[in-house]
Amino acid sequence: MAEIIITDKTEALAAVKNDGWALEHASDELKADKEVVMA
To answer: Taking a C-beta distance cutoff of 8 angstroms, is the pair 22, 5 a contact?
Structure first.
């Protein structure tokens, strides 16, 4: 099964706000984005 990687910041923000574990599926660039991590 292919892993889904979130690359869109808006989608990442919404996903992480809904479930913090969604950060696991964010791109490395988004994982380094403080706004996304703190969502």
So the answer is: no
Specify the pTM.
0.84
Say whether 10 sits in a helix, a strand or coil: helix
> CB of 16 within 8 A of CB of 25?
no
* Cβ atoms of residues 7 and 31 within 8 Å: no
Write the pLDDT tens digit of every residue in 1-39.
788 899 999 999 999 999 999 999 999 999 999 999 999
Q: Distance between CA 10 and CA 1 in Å, rounded?
A: 25
Q: Parse the chain into domains and list their residue ranges.
A: 1-39
Question: Please, what is the end-to-end C-alpha distance for the chain in angstroms?
Answer: 28
